[in-house]
Design a protein that fits this description.
Length: 518
């Protein structure tokens, strides 16, 4: 069968700071190709809807699949599915990905028949089974993870081994368009999949059932040797949770003489626990490290159930600096912030050398705060669920909230990407320009055209064509197993030694809850 895999357009944040290759879609495409199908990919982050229609006409696919990893992309995906159904009524269309896995029936209902099914869970595990069922004319509801308007198939399944899957990187037509910061161009790679923690605002652990699986260091090194891009973004939710695994990958890279520059995300407590791993990685090319601090006070950390003290966060920042790493941190702005709070955060951020990103508290289906957030949503417009818009009631009038939010982001943008900051990166920008890479250089001037309080406020005034489901009633406690896409498999699904497993439990929640969710 001919299969066209589609990634939707860029979101607000990715229009400025980064543009990552659609690794998840490449893995799904690779699995479909391994199953014997003819596959192509189009990434609307770097191509247009016109390109999409031209490819449909020339390729003539039997199946079109869309990547639904982000709620804000849902309207675009549904619009494309509806229009495709009108022009090509015989094409089988389905959507997979992280976000749609939590709201499968809602998305199907909104499509009004344009979407044949949703494929929940890990798409690279089930895409071959779905395509085989289509070819053989079998009941789709025999396929793990399939959801239609008439029923639901067996529970989603995991890929048997991360060593056996390969992304179809060769199918991307514009690989030089992907970057993160000064890593331009940059490819993405997966060392491990899943997250053993359980932060209230996050749905990574609810998607994967708190599992944590790793790929073999030799397989990872093989893949790194095949990647042409000099920059590498490690997509793991928390890098190097398992010290031995991180060190083994580093040793394999050193043995083979692989020269790359790396960017990764991790937790402060993981960095402090596995200092030697990060030290070794800083010696083999790790340049950037992103730490999700989330809050600058103990009360905020408690709210997000990040059991990392402020002292530990600052200790981690100090250690990362000592390794010569460029550190970025994330702070979550709560709609309850007033002008004084914004100003305090601005001053704090200006006093530290790290790059600071500000996002906005956003309840998502699949997270605990979706069920427990007592403040009701002020909008159900999918387009606003991008962690850059306020979807909960704000203490300040909404126009003032956006003024303060963008003012804070602008101060931090000037600190790191203004003319003064450009002096520090002029050499890098010059070298990239000589190589024909302009992604990083262009982003330096794009901030004001994307982050604008009037534009963000105007986004609320647009008529919403597609509405999210109504929030469930507020509850004090949630049956955690009801949140999962992949059901929890307990300790056996986590590739962690006993000491690391104990470390995770101590840093995630109360001991009673740990025992109940082991």
């Amino acid at each position: 069968m001919k299969v066209l895999a589609v990634h939707p357009s860029a979101l607000m944040y990715t229009k400025v700071f980064l543009r990552l290759e659609p690794l998840g879609l490449e893995l799904v495409a690779g699995a479909a190709r391994d199953a014997g199908h003819d596959v192509q990919i189009i990434d609307l982050q770097v191509e247009t809807h016109k390109d999409y229609w031209e490819l449909l006409e020339s390729f003539k696919p039997d199946v079109v699949c869309f990547s639904g990893n982000y709620l804000a992309n849902v309207p675009e995906i549904i619009d494309l599915c509806r229009a495709t159904r009108v022009r090509y009524p015989d094409i089988f269309q389905f959507i997979g990905g992280h976000s749609v896995s939590f709201i499968a029936r809602d998305v199907l209902a909104l499509s009004e028949g344009a979407v044949n099914c949703i494929l929940k869970g890990e798409g690279d595990a089930s895409i071959g089974l779905l395509l085989r069922a289509l070819e053989d004319g079998k009941d789709l509801l025999t396929v793990p993870g399939v959801v239609t308007m008439t029923g639901e198939g067996p529970s989603p399944v995991f890929v048997e081994s991360l060593n056996d899957i390969r992304p179809a990187r060769d199918l991307l037509r514009h690989r030089n368009k992907y970057f993160i910061g000064t890593l331009d161009p940059a490819a993405s790679i997966e060392f491990a999949r899943g997250c053993p923690w359980d932060c209230t605002f996050c749905s990574a652990w609810t998607f994967y059932g708190r599992s944590y699986r790793t790929a073999s260091p030799t397989v990872i090194a093989d893949e790194l040797e095949e990647i042409k891009e000099p920059g590498i973004f490690i997509v793991d939710d928390v890098a190097f949770v398992h010290e031995e695994h991180g060190m083994a990958i580093a040793n394999e890279i050193k043995k083979r003489g692989i020269k790359k520059e790396y960017y990764l995300e991790t937790r402060a407590d993981v960095l402090l626990r596995n200092k030697e791993v990060f030290k070794v990685w800083s010696e083999i090319g790790l340049s950037y490290i992103f730490i999700g601090m989330e809050a600058v006070d103990e009360e905020g950390l408690k709210q997000f159930r990040k059991r990392v003290s402020l002292d530990k966060n600052f200790e981690a920042l100090d250690y990362a600096r000592s390794l010569g790493l460029i550190v970025a941190i994330n702070i979550i702005a709560d709609p309850d912030w007033d002008r004084g709070r914004f100003e305090a955060v601005r001053q704090w951020c200006l006093e530290i050398p790290e790059i600071v990103n500000i996002s906005v508290t956003t309840p998502y289906p699949g997270t605990e705060i979706w069920h427990k957030e007592a403040r009701r949503l002020t909008t159900r417009d999918y387009r606003l669920f991008d962690i850059q818009h306020a979807v909960l009631p704000t203490k300040l009038p909404l126009p003032e909230f956006y003024e303060e939010l963008v003012k804070t982001q602008q101060v931090l943008n000037t600190k790191h990407m203004g003319w003064e900051a450009l002096k520090d990166t002029a050499g890098i920008a010059g070298r990239l320009l000589l190589k024909g890479q302009t992604n990083f250089l262009k982003m330096l001037w794009k901030f004001n055209s994307v982050f604008n309080p009037k534009l963000q406020l105007a986004d609320h005034m647009r008529k919403a064509r597609y509405l999210m489901p109504i929030q469930p009633d507020v509850v004090d406690s949630v049956d955690r197993k009801d949140l999962y896409v992949h059901g929890p498999g307990g300790r056996k699904t986590r590739a962690l030694d006993d000491a690391t497993e104990q470390f995770v439990d101590k840093t995630r929640m109360t001991e009673d809850a740990c025992a109940a969710d082991s």
